[in-house]
Specification:
64% helix; five-stranded mixed beta sheet; disordered N terminus; mainly alpha; two-stranded antiparallel sheet; 553 residues; 7 strands
Length: 553
């Protein structure tokens, strides 16, 4: 289906969507400091790549770190090189991936149901609570989710017969290779399993051999194999660690300490759409009334298989993180977008829609009275009277979002959906600065690093005792001495030639502390009594929610 043909959809619509996405996802990108642990880790590894020139073997705090492949690190390193070694440089690659994911969702909607569905799905995805937040964080899962879309959807178009050109199949192979380079075997397993399950459920199993292509395999190997060969040559224990421990054991055991119950993701997935949830019933009823034109049976099976497989796969795992659900949001946005497109076609001049207003009032009240629940934290982050001033624009955008559906008769459902998306974008952008201040005060080591940087001289040592705040090496641009064995670094520690120097035990660190070298040291915030006992000659520099900072000279 040509996306320019239906409903007068012009090329300018796509350009306008791109411009809006760039403002939404790149605006205020540096407002919030990098968060611990993930953002600090995934910014420091690319920073060390740039510093060392080694783009094959990732390092974290100076030791080998092979838990993930390098594609995301390479992209982030490019961002740091272009935009500087700060928050914007660290996050810009992930934000660009999020923008691409919205554009590809628009494309999926156009291919399966037409331009209005594509536009609605893109607008819903871009302004959904989950996607907006994850898309603006320095985390691998957004890049993985978008590359899985590239691996899955073009292959489906080819396998289902919607597109006969083999370039769609080759694109899928390339997407799978890049997804492998982003997070490993999941980039191959997910596309293969989803497409096979679809073929079984849709009774198209005989079509599956069409997916096998020597050219496609060559494309995959050309993209993915060089790094595997190079990293294995540099690290002989790579294969066992990466494929056994980081794939098999991570999935089947609690070795990474991320155990959650089986149902963990079930509330997270719908909550990720948050302010679009009031529209779900409208979309569902419209889809039921128009079942013949909602999606074809094969397309419905495909989208639901995509969502169902990802949710069940990670639910069965003994290692769970909220960001693992990123791949399900494009197909879910497409299902919701199609339902709302059918509703909009029916409800031009319909009755007022009051549910969003109730939701807006409830959420607005929560934001308004937030100072009563977290008075000390809000005072620390935005000042005593700063909350209402900083959150005011977001409250106004939220109220406007709730009021728009009341003018259904005058506006029509199409304008209600598009205005709702625009106001949600304004809400997320407006709430970003105060939310960033609150979260940054409790989840980042930037303020502690600033205390160190203000005093740091060449030859000084930065240490962490009983704690490893991942953002400290990034913000100080210095390798830190770590007393104890942090879990993240266990693999690299065993082979580090300078382990005794940078990862000393308590006795060795006390000798360093009492030497002529100036040592800045971080502790957990509850360790003040231990500090007074073991380090009586210390000078206190900072004591905050993130920890205690002392210096010896």
């Amino acid at each position: 289906m040509a996306w320019t043909s239906e409903e007068g959809m012009r090329r300018g619509t796509l350009y306008l969507l791109l411009a809006a996405l760039c403002v939404l996802y790149f605006g205020f990108l540096g407002t919030m400091p990098l968060l611990d642990p993930d953002e600090g880790r995934y910014a420091e590894i690319p920073r060390e790549m740039l510093a060392s020139g080694d783009f094959v073997t990732p390092h974290l705090n100076g030791v080998v770190y092979l838990e993930k492949p390098p594609l995301f690190y390479w992209g982030t390193a490019l961002g740091l090189a272009v935009f500087g070694e700060g928050e914007v440089g660290a996050r810009v690659f992930g934000a660009a991936a999020a923008v691409l994911g919205v554009v590809l969702t628009f494309w999926m909607g156009v291919e399966l149901a037409g331009p209005r569905t594509g536009l609605y799905a893109a607008a819903i995805l871009a302004t959904s609570f989950y996607y907006y937040i994850v898309g603006r964080l320095n985390t691998i899962d957004m890049t993985l989710g978008v590359l899985l879309l590239v691996a899955i959807f073009p292959a489906y178009l080819y396998l289902s017969g919607k597109r006969a050109e083999r370039r769609y199949l080759y694109l899928a192979y390339a997407g799978a290779a890049l997804a492998f380079l982003a997070k490993g075997l999941i980039g191959v397993v997910f596309p293969a399993a989803i497409l096979l399950l679809w073929a079984i459920l849709a009774k198209r199993l005989r079509e599956v051999p069409r997916l096998l292509s020597w050219v496609g395999i060559a494309i995959f190997l050309a993209l993915a194999l060089p790094w595997v060969v190079l990293v294995q040559r540099a690290n002989p224990d790579f294969f066992q660690f990466f494929f056994i421990r980081e794939h098999l054991l991570r999935y089947t055991t609690t070795t990474h300490g991320r155990y959650q119950p089986f149902w963990f993701f079930l509330p997270i997935v719908p909550a990720g759409f948050l302010l679009w949830l009031p529209f779900v019933r409208k979309a569902y009823l419209a889809a039921r009334r128009n079942a013949a034109v909602f999606f074809s049976r094969e397309d419905r099976i495909f989208l639901l298989t995509w969502v169902g497989f990802v949710v069940l796969f990670f639910s069965a795992s003994d290692s769970k993180l909220i960001t693992y659900m990123t791949p399900v949001y494009p197909p879910l946005a497409l299902l919701l977008g199609r339902g709302l497109a059918l509703w909009a076609a029916e409800e031009e001049g319909g009755a007022p829609f009051r549910v969003p207003l109730f939701v807006a009032l409830a959420l607005g009240a929560a934001l308004l009275f937030a100072p009563l629940l977290a008075k000390e934290l809000i005072r620390e982050a935005v000042g005593g009277d700063g909350w209402l001033l900083s959150a005011g624009p977001a409250l106004l955008a939220l109220l406007a979002w709730g009021l728009v559906p009341l003018w259904m008769k005058r506006l029509g459902a199409n304008r209600v959906v598009l205005l709702s998306a625009a106001l949600l974008a304004l809400f997320w952008m407006s709430i970003n600065p105060p939310a960033a201040a609150l979260i940054g005060a409790t989840r980042s080591g930037k303020s502690l690093a600033a205390e160190i940087n203000a005093r740091l001289r060449p030859g000084d040592i930065v240490a962490q005792n009983g704690v490893y705040i991942q953002t400290i090496p990034f913000y100080t641009k210095q390798r830190t001495v770590v007393v104890g064995d942090p879990d993240d670094l266990q693999f690299g520690l065993r082979r580090a030639p300078d382990r005794a120097e940078y990862f000393p035990d308590e006795a060795a660190f006390l000798r360093l502390w009492n030497s002529d070298r100036r040592v800045f040291c971080l502790f957990n915030r509850g360790e003040m009594d231990t500090i007074r006992e073991r380090y009586p000659n210390h000078r206190l520099l900072s004591r905050s929610r993130r920890g205690i900072l002392i210096v010896n000279h």
